[in-house]
Amino acid sequence: MALTQLHDHSRDTRQPVYAPFALGFRPFFLAAGLAGLALMALWLGIWTGVLTPAPYFDVINWHAHEMLFGYTAAVIAGFLLTAVRNWSGVDTLNGAPLAALAGLWLLGRTLFFVPALPAWTIAAVDLVFLPALALSLAGPIFASPNKANRVLLLLLGVMFTANALMHLQALGLTATTARPGILLMLDTVLLLILMITGRVLPFFTEAVLACSECRRSRLIELATFATLLGMLAADVGGWPRAAGVMALAAALVQLVRVAGWIKPGIGSLPILLVLYVAYAWVVVGLLLKGLADLGLLAPNLALHALTIGVIGGFTLGMMARVALGHTGRMMQSARLTNLGFVLLNLGALVRIFPPLLLPEQYSLWVVLSGLLWIGAFAAFVWVYAPVLVRTRVDGKPG
């Protein structure tokens, strides 16, 4: 099956299980929503000096690690465990094994705060999650006739390597591997997002708007992955100018790519519009990264365009869409969900552009952006927690 097949294909042969662990999106999307709230609240408490940071990572590296390997990894797990089942026709984890995998993820988030726990224990528990996820997906992926899906296992392996680079520095075994680990994870997540959206977003657009086919170009697809892989290699290799050039090239390629998918009526459906807004952040974020790597802009501003705008926008939008589709609901987001979409994008804007104009108020912008992010995820949890823990409205399994 193609990657475009993200609508539900429930199989009635599947044995009924406890609803919150019936399919991967349920526990992991709920975990991601709660993590979006809790991790940002902790970060704001640490940033303002109200809370004391955990001793394992330094303050900045903990924040980066948890937003990438905590929040983002949870969304990736929920999405892949659900989508791979559709693509392959083979059941992925459910029931007790799924609960165990979710528990492993949760344990990795909490051990940082356990006093006097050996550092190697923290590292070992956190590092085992991504390989465990890959192992659980390997059978269904290799059973699928679409061999292209096997690249997902490679990407999970690269993410594990990025996590290991961060832990090596935290353990004192290396001096400067945390930053390359952050960039490697960020670039790999961007690659995964653009790989998935290249199949899903045109399909979703055509389906919900009943419009003509979105324009696709093999040359643009090849350029997408060539420029991103070049940027990734330059980031990991420590060649910022080369990374900047590749980022600028990638921004241009993505502008051309998404232009072929835009159809009249996109703005009338918030659950579709939010994905296109996130794609706009791809172009803006890559442009800002290119300028930053060339020494023309502060790097942290570009970083947050890619994390809040791109990763935050795509993950929130996709969680909302997948949760509706896989619980048998209408593909229409609630007003509170739409407010969450707005708050998240306002948070991205506040985190990036006001600091350029009023840098002396930088701490204010950080806090305001964080509060807007919290508001967005509070809206998501309020609307979707009941959806994620209850059985499908159409009575089907999953």
What is shown here, in short?
The protein has 398 residues and is an all-alpha fold.
Explain how this protein is built.
Keywords: Membrane, Transmembrane, Transmembrane helix. Pfam families: NnrS. The chain crosses the membrane at residues 21-47, 67-84, 96-114, 120-139, 151-170, 182-201, 222-239, 245-262, 269-289, 301-324, 336-358, 364-389. With 398 residues, the protein is mainly α. The protein has a single domain (20-389), classed as Cytochrome c oxidase-like, subunit I domain (Cytochrome C Oxidase, Chain A). Helices cover 72% and strands 0% of the residues. It is built from 14 helices and no strands. The protein has helices spanning 25-47, 59-88, 95-110, 119-127, 129-143, 151-170, 178-209, 218-237, 240-259, 270-293, 299-325, 335-352, 354-357, 362-389. Helix 2 crosses helix 7, helix 3 (95-110) packs antiparallel against helix 4 (119-127) and helix 10 (270-293) runs antiparallel to helix 11. The two termini are 19 Å apart.
